[in-house]
Specification:
This protein is of the alpha/beta class. Helix content is 46%, strand content 21%. It is built from 15 helices and 15 strands. Helix 4 links the parallel strand 3 and strand 4.
């Protein structure tokens, strides 16, 4: 009998603890606006996460110091998805159910983002994408609670093609990782550039295993093509290794390399980065001549003793848009904030921007420049003489978007 009483008492205490935990989460949700960050915080995505987190933390500190949003402070709850879609889905579930988050932000990987979007739709909660950017997220995988403030792969590829389409280059070779992101990106680039410049020559396409870092066989073949431009979607460690291995061969004396040259890569490469390479960035704070971006960069440097990368700036921009929409809706109710976000004109770090209602894509373009030295950055190169290709010039027309979106 005593044993049964003990079991019953323990069960009652367990239920009590569960109720206390639930009450605590609900109490927090009532007092604050909780942001759930599905973050690719470990593995290859770690450098991007650190940059994103710095921008997010700075935004939250500034908003909370000013009194919060609708009188409520912002609170960040982070879960790591480690670039794995199943972990991202589980993280989103936990953030929206156990942690009672009001909104989701992140992740870096488009594969993770696709799974996070499904969870967000299930619970009718908004997710702001500031780094993951597959064009499928706004077309075939579109759902009404997703909003994107990063140039998607279509804008990037077509924007870069637009840049080269109005310059003298005709001979191109390609090397990239063999997965859907790179193949879709290159297809967009090739199709657009061929339309703009019918006499363009694509000399070769080389597809390597995702994660490969030994390019000793591929580099001589690229050199034999005698291209003017080598285009690649290699990224992270693979891109660094490709540059390190190709530089001594003299490849970059005869051809330029075109890829995503974000600040994390440029800092990591340091003075080993060749000068004169034509690269692009999604949002280079050092090259954007907007008052708000300059103020952001100054505050960032004062806080972290470092220059902000595009990942920090785009995360900050995503929260700027969300904040303006919450204030416009005068509510954190998802459906009301969705209506406020659709067509929203907001003052971003990149200047005045708006969110297209049909696909929830912000009109954010791509920035193309040439690697070079700058006295502000004694330890690494940056993109110089940067040209902006506006989103409105290259994003997918609405009739095409609507054909691809789920009915």
């Amino acid at each position: 009998m005593v044993q049964w009483r003990l079991v019953i008492a323990m069960l009652a205490f367990t239920v009590f603890l569960g109720n206390v935990t639930s009450f605590h989460a609900e109490s927090l949700a009532a007092d604050t606006i909780r942001l759930g960050f599905v973050a690719d915080a470990t593995g290859a995505g770690e450098p991007w996460y650190k940059s994103q987190r710095a921008g997010i933390d700075m935004f939250i500190d500034e908003i909370n110091a000013a009194g919060g949003i609708l009188g409520r402070k912002l609170e960040l709850v982070v879960r790591d998805s480690a670039l794995k879609p199943d972990l991202g889905e589980a993280a989103a579930e936990e953030l929206l159910t156990k942690e009672r988050c009001d909104f989701l932000i992140g992740p870096s990987s488009s594969g993770v983002a696709e799974r996070v979007m499904k969870v967000a739709k299930k619970y009718k909660k908004i997710v702001i994408l500031h780094t993951s950017n597959s064009e499928t997220l706004t077309t075939t995988d579109f759902q009404p609670y997703m909003f994107e403030v990063v140039p998607n792969t279509g804008i990037e590829a077509r924007g870069l093609a637009q840049f080269f389409g109005h310059r003298q280059y005709k001979r191109f070779s390609y090397i990239g990782p063999d997965y859907s992101y790179a193949r879709n990106w290159f297809s967009n680039f090739k199709t657009t550039l061929t339309k703009l410049k019918p006499d363009v020559q694509f000399l070769s396409e080389t597809w390597v295993k995702l994660g490969d870092t030994d390019f000793s066989k591929e580099i001589p073949n690229l050199a034999a093509d005698n291209p003017e431009i080598v285009v690649t979607n290699l990224w992270g460690k693979a891109l660094e290794e490709f540059i390190h291995q190709a530089k001594p061969t003299g490849l970059f004396n005869r051809a330029s390399l075109t890829s995503l040259f974000d600040l994390e890569l440029l800092k990591s490469m340091g003075q080993d980065m060749p000068e004169g390479l034509l690269g692009y960035s999604r949002c280079p704070p050092y090259a954007i001549n907007e008052r708000r971006m300059k103020e952001f960069s100054e505050k960032f440097r004062a806080k972290y003793d470092d220059w902000p990368a595009c990942w920090a700036a785009m995360a900050y921009d995503g929260l700027l848009a969300l904040t303006e929409a919450i204030n416009k809706a005068n509510s954190t109710d998802s459906d009301k904030v969705v209506k406020a976000l659709e067509g929203l004109a907001f003052k971003s770090l990149r200047g005045a921007r708006y969110i297209r209602a049909a696909d929830h894509m912000a009109d954010v373009g791509v920035y193309v420049g040439m690697t070079g030295k700058d006295p502000r950055f004694p330890n690494f190169l940056i993109l110089k003489n940067v040209t902006t290709v506006p989103a409105e010039m290259v994003w997918m027309p609405l009739d095409e978007v609507k054909k691809l979106q789920p009915k």
